[in-house]
Design a protein that fits this description.
Elements lengths: L7 H15 L8 H15 L4 H8 L8 H8 L10 H20 L6 E6 L6 H12 L8 E8 L2 H9 L1 E3 L8 H7 E3 L5 E4 L1 H4 L2 E5 L11 E6 L8 H14 E9 L12 E5 L2 E4 L2
Parallel strand pairs: 1-2, 1-7, 2-6, 7-8
Antiparallel strand pairs: 3-5, 4-5, 8-10, 9-10
GO biological process, one term: methylation
Organism: Paludisphaera borealis
Keywords: Methyltransferase, S-adenosyl-L-methionine, Transferase
Length: 276
């Protein structure tokens, strides 16, 4: 049997399911994309029709298929040092400021950062690269970078830490040489273990609170564009609940959450701080 596209009813049911499971609102113009992605799961599971797959996915027997389904219908696109000013602030302002506070005994020698939608790892590893640049000054500190994502496939790729040229387009030659191992044909680069060891990865749905110690800084970027207002409010509440006093929130240019951050002090258009 050859399947073409989802019918109007099937498409609506899958969109509603995606929203219920992840909070992500897929545009109604994406029928071809969703049809193609669901068709992949039909081939993988051996199920013949969209309707039968939906019935399986929403049954108790299909609970284990849901992560693979969400992997298939969500897109992960990123690269190292996306939004360069954010990483300049991290390396030139945040880390030196924390070092000064610790030297004056105003804070413990620890730094916890959460990359709240880490995709295939470029964002948390960019953070780790900045920490590695200050490794000597941070000697003896308890450093922790947590990368979370809903996509299991993305997290597998993140843990592998192997990247092609597109992902490294903003990584300079010196950093590539110092922090990456290049393969024989120069087409792929593997992040070295000393940087990889700074980052831990975990599956997490942003619609739920994260089970972790409070974070000194949270990166919440380039993800909430896919959420509606109610889902954004839930995510923001969860993120704010995860921040330590004095902690910072780094947002992307398209998140649309400025009006939800009234409890935070605005430092820059994309940077907020939780006051004591």
């Amino acid at each position: 049997m050859t399947l073409t596209e989802l019918t109007d009813d099937e498409f609506a049911r899958f969109l509603a399911l995606i929203y219920r499971a992840s909070g992500i609102r897929i545009a109604e113009t994406k029928r071809v994309l969703v049809s193609n992605r669901v068709r992949r799961r039909l081939r993988a599971t051996g199920i013949e029709t969209f309707a039968a797959y939906y019935a399986f996915l929403t049954s108790p027997a299909g609970a284990g298929e849901m992560p693979a389904f969400l992997d298939a219908v969500t897109t992960n696109e990123t690269y190292f040092f996306r939004d360069q000013p954010h990483y300049d602030w991290l390396g030139d302002e945040l880390i030196p400021g924390l070092l000064s506070e610790a030297a004056a005994h105003r804070r413990p020698r620890s730094l916890r950062i959460w990359s709240a939608a880490c995709s295939t790892g470029e964002e948390p590893y960019s953070i780790a690269l900045k920490l590695a640049d200050h490794r000597a000054a941070l000697l003896g500190w308890r450093l922790s970078v947590l990368g979370t994502d809903l996509s299991g496939a993305a997290l597998i790729a993140a843990r592998g830490a192997v990247y092609e040229e597109r992902a490294l387009q903003r990584v300079d030659a010196e950093t590539r040489k110092k922090r990456f191992d290049e393969d024989a044909d120069g087409k792929r680069w593997t992040l070295k273990p000393d940087v990889r060891s700074l980052v831990a990865f975990r599956s997490h749905n942003l619609l739920k609170p994260v089970d972790a110690e409070p974070f000194d800084c949270v990166f919440l970027k380039n993800v909430l564009i896919y959420f509606d207002a109610n889902s954004k409010r839930t995510v923001v509440d969860n993120v704010l609940g995860s921040m330590a006093k004095g902690g910072f929130l780094v947002t992307g240019p398209t998140e649309g959450i400025h009006g939800m951050l009234g409890s935070l002090a605005r430092i820059k258009p994309w940077l907020y701080q939780r006051t004591a």
